[in-house]
Write a structure and sequence with these properties.
With 293 residues, this protein is α/β, with parallel strands linked by helices. The protein contains 10 helices and 10 strands. Helix 2 packs across helix 3 (112-123).
């Protein structure tokens, strides 16, 4: 049964015994379920508005599953930070889907979530029936990754949620001029948990070690071989017009390798576009419905 916010909490065990969490929307709804996978330090709350939209669609209401990776949101922290990697996280997603009895679905991946989708396609090809990649592709631009590392390494701790908005605007405001004050408020309540009125980042601080350990002076590995396994699957790629992580050149190469690729460029947003803004919820719903006709 859904809670008062339109979802229920689901807990399950990883293969190595961690207690992991997902949000479930629209339990019992028919049609192709949709699995939402967030970015590196983000959590299931990122997808709340989009999940409500998809789960309550008057024509095709769907079952939506939004995961918290290990060390994020309401999932247990891993005592070994080196387990915070996309291979382990992909295995955790498979464990959660198995526990829910889901053997196929549409997948929406923001940033790191999109990388995990690439691995899932190689690990269990029959699982994925449609893909939405939010500002991510097989090639990650080093400059964008360096920017992420910089603000994770140097981000101050806010004193309250007003201060949190100020901090996030200072970091992301130039890349996201399209956001409204309501968008910024929703954003900070997604990335911080509330501890007696004080915002606290909702991930294991040790997660930052995974970014600090990267040698950005060396070329980054790409995922073109894994992308090839997705080329027969309907795909929508969303890119923030101001993104520094996903380049226009990569989008064009994706289009060449996947002739059926649909694309959306979101003006006034960077990495990664907020999927609940503008016409994106309707466009994503239409895309999923076209696959599940």
């Amino acid at each position: 049964m859904a809670g008062h916010d339109g979802y229920s909490d689901f807990f399950y065990a990883s293969q190595d015994g961690l207690r992991l969490h997902a949000r479930l929307y629209g339990a019992g709804n028919p049609g192709l379920p949709v699995v939402c996978l967030p970015g590196l330090t983000r959590n299931a709350r990122d997808f709340h508005e989009l999940a409500l939209h998809l789960a309550t669609d008057p024509e095709k209401p769907r079952r939506i599953i939004c995961f918290d990776y290990r060390g994020r949101g309401r999932s247990e922290y891993d005592p070994n930070w080196q387990n915070y990697n996309v291979g382990m996280e992909a295995a955790d997603i498979l464990a959660g889907l198995d526990a829910l009895g889901i053997d196929q679905g549409g997948f929406i991946g923001t940033s790191r979530g999109g990388l995990i989708i690439h691995l899932l396609a190689a690990m269990r090809p029959a699982l994925i029936k449609a893909v939405v990649l939010n500002d991510i592709g097989p090639v990650i631009e080093p400059a964008g990754l360096a920017l992420i590392r910089s603000y994770l390494e140097n981000s101050p701790s806010p004193t309250d949620f007003v201060d949190a908005i100020r901090i996030q605007k200072a970091v992301h405001g130039e890349a996201f001029p399209a956001l409204t004050e309501v968008d910024w408020q929703r954003f900070v309540h997604a990335i911080y948990r509330n501890e007696d009125g004080r915002p606290v980042v909702d991930f294991d601080p040790a997660l930052i070690n995974t970014v600090l350990a990267m040698d950005l002076s060396q070329p980054l590995s790409d995922l073109w071989p894994q992308f090839a396994t997705l080329c027969a699957i309907p795909m929508l790629a969303i890119r923030g017009a101001n993104s520094r992580l996903l380049s226009v050149a990569t989008i064009e190469e994706m289009r060449m390798r996947h002739p059926g690729l649909e694309t959306i460029t979101v003006k006034g947003q960077g990495h990664a576009p907020f999927l609940e803004t503008g016409a994106l919820p309707e466009k994503i719903a239409d895309f999923i419905s076209s696959v599940d006709a």
